[in-house]
């Protein structure tokens, strides 16, 4: 972008500032080109203009603005079934189970599918006592499939997602019991919490995740029921507002 193209935005952002800090609504505008957060000084509500400070692109404000609302009815201490919130002096933890009715289909399906494919490909080699390289290579996608979908099947029975924050140190845990995937993040760097599309999709989920947006974008809770994901989203926003 040519610097000469930069347009100045007249400063009449008070209305926006007031709205941005009143009640339970927080506004943000994200540049659709480079995803930079556009500061309030670069927006003008009256003329519906926003300028990205990073790439100098000009957009209609109404197109790029989003609001982050916490329902007045929301009570973090009244989670839906399968969700929880705990707090002590050191840390807080908000999370939910990924248990899902999909388990009734997935678990038997996985047993049959893996049993037949792996049994047929490797079981016959073991039974005959001879190694078949071609067949073994052919079976690799079935092993990966078993690990991936087997993991998902186990998550629909025993899985959970937890967001744990101690001071500014945040962790997102996805897994079963002590086994799982922990991602660390800096809670003080989180500027925005939203529902988002997942990076990958598979059948049987509602196709939405929660994003913690800041320096980086951390997505989680892809296997969550709508009620539990909504609770996590609203709970995290409320916790974020406290800091
Ligand atoms: Zn930009």
Please, could you describe this protein's structure?
There is one protein chain. The chain is α+β, with helices and mostly antiparallel strands and 243 residues long. It folds into three domains: 3-69, no CATH class; 83-99 and 159-242; 103-156, no CATH class. 33% of the residues lie in helices and 27% in strands. It has five helices and 13 strands. The chain has helices spanning 14-21, 61-64, 103-128, 133-158, 226-242, and strands spanning 25-29, 43-44, 49-51, 58-60, 65-69, 83-87, 92-97, 160-166, 169-176, 179-186, 192-196, 209-213, 217-220. Strands 6-7-8-9-10 form a five-stranded antiparallel beta sheet. The protein has a three-stranded antiparallel beta sheet with strand order 2-3-4. It has a three-stranded antiparallel beta sheet with strand order 11-12-13, covered by helices on one side. The longest helix is centred in the middle third of the chain and has 26 residues, at 103-128. It starts with 13 loop residues before the first helix and ends with a helix. The protein binds zinc ion (ZN). Residues 31, 33-34, 36, 52, 54-55, 57 line the site of zinc ion (ZN).
């Amino acid at each position: 972008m040519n610097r000469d193209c930069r347009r100045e935005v007249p400063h009449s952002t008070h209305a926006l500032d007031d709205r941005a800090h009143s009640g339970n609504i927080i506004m943000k505008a994200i540049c659709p080109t480079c995803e930079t957060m556009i500061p309030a000084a670069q927006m003008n509500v009256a003329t519906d203009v926003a300028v990205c400070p990073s790439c100098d692109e000009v957009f209609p404000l109404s197109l790029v603005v989003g609001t982050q609302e916490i329902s007045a009815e929301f009570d973090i201490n009244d989670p839906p079934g399968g969700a929880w919130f705990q707090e002590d002096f050191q840390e807080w933890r908000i999370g939910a189970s990924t248990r899902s009715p999909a388990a009734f289909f997935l678990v038997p399906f996985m047993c049959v599918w893996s049993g037949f494919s792996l049994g047929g490909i490797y079981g016959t080699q073991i039974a005959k006592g001879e190694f078949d390289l071609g067949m073994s290579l052919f079976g690799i996608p079935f092993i990966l499939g078993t690990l991936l979908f087997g993991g998902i099947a186990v998550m629909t029975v025993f899985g959970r997602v937890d967001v744990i924050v101690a001071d500014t140190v945040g962790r997102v845990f996805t897994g079963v019991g002590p086994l799982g995937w922990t991602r660390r993040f800096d809670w003080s760097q989180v500027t925005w919490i939203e529902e988002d599309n997942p990076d990958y999709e598979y059948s049987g989920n509602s196709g939405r995740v929660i994003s913690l947006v800041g320096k980086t974008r951390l997505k989680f809770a892809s296997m969550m029921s709508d009620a539990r994901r909504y609770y996590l989203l609203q709970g995290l926003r409320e916790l974020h507002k406290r800091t």
